[in-house]
Amino acid sequence: MKVGRLAIATGLAAGSLAVWAQSPAPSAPEAGLDSARSTVSKWIATQDLLFREKKEWQEGRELLEARIEAQEKEIAAAEAKLAESERVLAELRHKQGETTSAERRLDDGAKRLGDAATSLEADVRRMHKVLPPAVQEKVDPLYRRIPDDPAATRSSVGERFQNIVGILDEIQKANGEIRLVTEIRALSDGKPSEVKTVYIGLGQAYFLSAGGEAGVGRPTEDGWDWRAAAELAQSVSDVIEILENKGKPRFIELPITLQ
After folding, report:
1. Which residue, among 204, 202, 171, 199, has the nearest Cα to 183 in the 3D structure?
2. Domain residue spans in the chain?
3. In b/e form, how buried is each residue of 224-234, taking b as 16+ CB within 10 angstroms?
4. pLDDT at 252 exceeding the cut of 50
5. DSSP of the chain
6. Phi/psi at 103 (nearest 5 deg)?
7. Selection from 126, 132, 137 nearest residue 204 by Cα
8. Nearest Cα to 220, choosing from 131, 122, 130?
9. Cα–Cα distance between 162 and 164 in angstroms, integer?
């Protein structure tokens, strides 16, 4: 029975198809079927479009997320570099501050040394007048190096101190010596004559002329002050003989004035 029904149904379907093919216009059910087919086609096309757009959106989202992740990594790296740069900059500023502080201390030290050099130069200038002529002549090259204007000199503080030390060394050396020199000095008659002068360090001196006129000299703020001392002629003569190796060494008394 089931086979028979299927055959009949098939036959009917074939008959129907044959009739539809010969028909000049579709019936109402057939028009509805075409409309349904069109709707299904549109729905399938719409679903396909939605699928493609969803796929493209998904791919775009994944690409966007990858870009965002890459940007975040770049931002993190940039922030790390910025933090390192700020650390290095802070360290450099700290070191610069230390350097500036050290430079300031050096400048202050240099100023103090410069002031000290200026004070010492003024002192040795004042000492120049109390130096014996022979010592003055010896240290004159060093005295000429003393700047007239310390603020405008091109000489370094070190060079100025070296010059001062050179002058003081010569002064100290002369102060520890008994020196015999030949000089020209005005005697009691007002005429300049050659005399032999014995300097006892830098604090006392005695002279004797060829004619036997003796005198004593002492340093003052304005230079050496020379005065006649006839009573010292023999003692000064004995000292000169010893210094010239013409007499035996012995003790000789001479008056000394201490100031």
Report:
1. 199
2. 56-175, 177-243
3. bebeebeebbe
4. yes
5. -HHHHHHHHHHHHHHHHHHHHH-SS--HHHHHHHHHHHHHHHHHHHHHHHHHHHHHHHHHHHHHHHHHHHHHHHHHHHHHHHHHHHHHHHHHHHHHHHHHHHHHHHHHHHHHHHHHHHHHHHHHHHHGGGS-HHHHHHHHHHHTTS-SSGGG--S-HHHHHHHHHHHHHHHHHHHT-EEEEEEEEE-TTS-EEEEEEEEETTTEEEEEETTS-EEEEEEETTEEEEEE-GGGHHHHHHHHHHHTTSS------------
6. -65, -40
7. 132
8. 130
9. 5
Contact 178, 199 (CB under 8 A): yes
Least confident piece of the model among 11-15, 40-44, 83-87: 11-15
Q: Cα 160 to the chain's mean position, in Å?
A: 23
Tokens matching residue 205: 């001196």
Give the residue, 43 or 236, on which the prediction is more confident: 236
Type of residue numbered 109: G
Compute the average pLDDT of residues 121-128.
Answer: 90
pLDDT (mean) for 109-113: 83
For residue 159, is pLDDT > 70? yes
On the 0-12 / 13-18 / 19+ scale of CB atoms within 10 A, 53 is: exposed
> What is the value of pTM for the model shown?
0.57
